[in-house]
Design brief:
This protein has 344 residues and is of the alpha+beta class. It is 32% helix and 23% strand. A hairpin with a 4-residue loop joins β6 (211-212) and β7. The relative contact order is 0.16.
């Protein structure tokens, strides 16, 4: 072959990547603080690791995605929400161990890079970082022709936070009689979307723009309801040793996540009707004829975070959370058992 071929002919546009990076830099800089030591574009992001106020700082790291909620972003053309969801999900994951977020990195992979779409995603990531007080110090945008369908992408996030060793929340102090509190979700958050899409789009035959009177919004709007961050509601309690255990209710629901923090010899008994369940869950159950056990195993059922405290601390914890503008409900008690969740 005599003609020289280019990378763009293979499907990768370096020019488009450069345009996207320039927009990303401005968004990321808005999350920086005095501890960020590098600019976006360095091979690695650097962060000042001194913690003079802590006796024994422990770094806590997590990585996650937002699952097939991305499919709803593709359908609606609304991409900033999933970026914010990603940050809030990761923040909650390290919060359960008492960690406050320090910095965040994102990974976006797509078949053909669309700078406007990437900018929307990162705009949401940057917003989530600012709201949670962490810095977006780097990431990766990968263009991989023929690997992803046109108009689709994948999204992942990586977070690092810190907690003093003496303040780690690990569930070991949980005992029978403790109060089980629930902080409500706004909807599905970022789990159960494969089943939700099957129910709404395949079983019911609806579109993303179908208005549903029961939901007071379209299907797409209901499925894009944001994933709540519980950091601001709980941060003021982290240093007081009032919280014995936290469980972020994600994939696996209450039965799959609460046992992860329970010590041997304990279970949790939760009473239905003690918290408000968003209408989307009863609607999906009815449309799909989904069994109760399957609903609770797949979805959060209106609970985004479980908080376990001693019974004498329950009023103080509830008052603090509600003062921060977050609803809080007593939904059950810790009982004797072998790390099970009993839903009555």
């Amino acid at each position: 072959m005599n003609r020289s071929i280019t990378y763009s002919e293979a499907g990768v546009s370096i020019d488009a990547a450069d345009r996207a990076k320039e927009r990303i830099k401005a968004l990321a800089r808005a999350t920086f603080n005095e501890r960020v030591l590098t600019e976006i574009g360095s091979f690695g992001g650097m962060f000042d690791a001194r913690f003079p106020a802590m006796r024994a700082p422990v770094l806590v790291a997590s990585a996650d995605g937002v699952g097939t909620k991305l499919k709803i972003a593709f359908l609606t053309g609304i991409h900033h929400g999933v970026g914010r969801d990603l940050v809030n999900h990761c923040v909650n994951d390290i919060l359960v161990q008492g960690a406050r977020p320090l910095f965040f990195l994102d990974y976006i992979a797509t078949g053909k890079l669309a700078p406007d779409v990437v900018a929307q995603i990162v705009e949401g990531v940057a917003l989530g970082c600012r709201e949670n007080g962490c810095a977006l110090i780097g990431g990766e945008t990968a263009e991989m022709p023929s690997f992803y369908a046109d108009g689709e992408y994948d999204l992942a996030g990586f977070i690092v936070g810190v907690v003093d060793r003496d303040e780690i929340i690990d569930g070991r102090r949980i005992a029978p009689g403790d109060a089980v509190l629930a902080l409500p979700s706004t909807g599905l958050h970022t789990n159960g979307y494969s089943l939700a899409r099957k129910i709404f789009f395949d079983v019911a035959g609806w579109r993303h723009d179908t208005f549903v009177e029961e939901l007071k919004m379209t299907v797409g709007e209901a499925l894009l309801m944001p994933h709540t961050s519980y950091l601001r509601a709980l941060e003021g309690l982290l240093d007081q040793r009032l919280i014995k255990g936290l469980a972020h209710i994600t994939g696996g629901g209450l039965p799959g996540n609460v046992p992860r923090i329970l010590p041997a010899g304990t279970s949790v008994r939760i009473t239905r009707g003690t918290w408000p369940v968003p209408a989307i869950f009863s609607l999906m159950q009815r449309l799909g004829n989904v069994a109760d056990d399957e609903m609770f195993r797949t979805f959060n059922m209106g609970i985004g975070m479980i908080v376990i405290v001693a019974p004498e601390d329950e009023p103080k914890v509830r008052a603090h959370v509600e003062t921060c503008g977050q609803q809080c409900f007593t939904v059950g008690r810790v009982v004797s058992g072998e790390r099970a969740v009993i839903i009555e």
